[in-house]
Design a protein that fits this description.
The protein is built from 10 helices and 15 strands. It is α+β, with helices and mostly antiparallel strands and 297 residues long. It has 2 domains: 5-23 and 64-165, SH3 type barrels (Roll), CATH 2.30.30; 171-289, no CATH class.
Length: 297
C-alpha cells in the first residue's frame, strides 16, 4: 500500500464535511438481547457467522440502515493526510434526509446528536454511530459536497469538537439544574405550551454554576443573533419567569439570565460557562430526555 495515499485522498478533496455513498455499518451485540434494527435482523436470521467463538459470546451484524442517505467525513484533514502506517482509517457518520421540522430545528441549534449539514437538501448528520473506513476504499469513491459554505464547515467542525470533547457535568449539578430544565421543557413541548420558534432562535444555552455546594447558584446565558437581543430578551422573559419555579430551593437557585450575541459577550464570560444541550443528558446510568427530536423513519 502506498504511504502517500493519505495525501492523495486529501488532494482529491477528501476533507471533513464531505459526503459520499452509504456503506455497510456494523454493530456488536448480545445474541439474546439485540437492540438495533441491524442486530435484530441478524439475530432473526440466526446466521452462524454472526455469533463468534470468543470468551465473551457476542454477535456482529452489518448492513446499511434504511434511513442512511449519505455518509459524512468527520476525520480532520490532518488525519486524512497521514500515511496509513500512522492513521489507516477515516471516520464517518451517517446522514439522513428529512423535512421534519421537529428534527431540523434542534439539528440547527441545540442538539448534541443531530447536526443540520445542509438545510436546502434537508441533510442531517446523526451522531448515533461512527463508521470506520480504511483509506484505500475511499480511493474508489468520489467525495460530494456536504456543507455548502466555509461558515457551515466551521460550524460542523465546532459541533464535532464539542461532541467529542464536551466536559461531563457533575451528577449533582445534573440532578439539581439540568434535570428540571430538560424535563419541564419536554413537558411544555408535549402540552403545546412551548414556543418552538423561540427555541430555534437560540443559538446555544450556556450554564454557569457560581458555587460548588448545595444549593447551587447559577446563571443562564442565551446566545442569539446580534440584531435580535432586545426582542429575545422580551420573548424569553415569561419563560424564564416560569423557569425559576422549576427548581427545588434546597438544590438550586437561578440567579440571573442574559441574552447575548457572539459579538458582545466576553471570551471570559463565554468560556466560564458550559454549553447546555437541550436534547439529552446522562447521569448515574439514567438518560434525561428534553427536546429530543423523533428518530428518522
Amino acid at each position: 500500500m502506498p504511504q502517500d495515499i493519505g495525501r492523495s485522498l486529501y488532494e482529491a478533496g477528501w476533507v471533513q464535511g464531505k459526503l459520499f455513498s452509504p456503506l455497510a455499518a456494523s454493530v456488536v451485540f448480545a445474541p439474546g438481547d439485540p437492540i438495533s434494527k441491524l442486530a435484530r435482523s441478524a439475530a432473526a436470521r440466526a446466521q452462524a457467522d454472526h455469533t463468534l467463538l470468543h470468551p465473551v459470546t457476542h454477535g456482529v451484524a452489518y448492513g446499511i440502515p434504511t434511513s442512511t442517505e449519505r455518509l459524512v467525513v468527520v476525520s480532520q484533514a490532518c488525519d486524512i493526510a497521514k500515511p496509513p502506517s500512522v492513521e489507516p482509517n477515516v471516520l464517518a457518520m451517517p446522514v439522513f434526509k428529512t423535512e421534519n421540522v421537529r428534527i431540523l430545528g434542534p439539528a440547527a441549534r441545540n442538539s448534541s446528536r443531530y447536526f443540520l449539514l445542509d438545510a436546502g437538501r434537508g441533510y442531517v448528520v446523526d451522531a448515533i454511530s461512527i463508521i470506520v473506513i480504511e483509506k484505500p476504499l475511499l480511493m474508489t469513491l468520489t467525495p460530494e459536497v456536504g456543507a455548502q459554505t466555509s461558515d457551515e464547515q466551521k460550524r460542523f467542525a465546532r459541533w464535532l469538537a464539542r461532541r467529542f470533547n464536551r466536559p461531563a457535568i457533575a451528577d449533582d449539578i445534573v440532578v439539581a439544574i439540568v434535570k428540571p430544565i430538560l424535563e419541564n421543557l419536554r413537558s411544555c413541548q408535549a402540552q403545546g405550551a412551548l414556543d418552538m420558534d423561540l427555541v430555534d432562535r437560540i443559538s446555544e444555552v450556556r450554564l454557569l454554576v457560581a458555587n460548588d455546594r448545595l444549593p447551587f447558584t447559577f446563571d443562564l446565558l442565551f446566545m442569539v443573533e446580534e440584531n435580535d437581543i432586545q426582542t429575545m430578551e422580551l420573548a424569553l422573559a415569561p419563560l424564564l419567569g416560569e423557569m425559576r419555579g422549576w427548581f427545588t430551593p434546597e438544590l438550586a437557585v437561578l440567579r440571573a439570565w442574559y441574552a447575548r450575541s457572539y459579538a458582545d459577550v466576553s471570551v471570559a464570560d463565554y468560556f466560564a460557562a458550559e454549553q447546555l444541550y437541550l436534547d439529552e443528558y446522562s447521569y448515574d446510568g439514567v438518560t434525561l430526555h428534553g427536546l429530543v427530536a423523533p428518530d428518522p423513519a
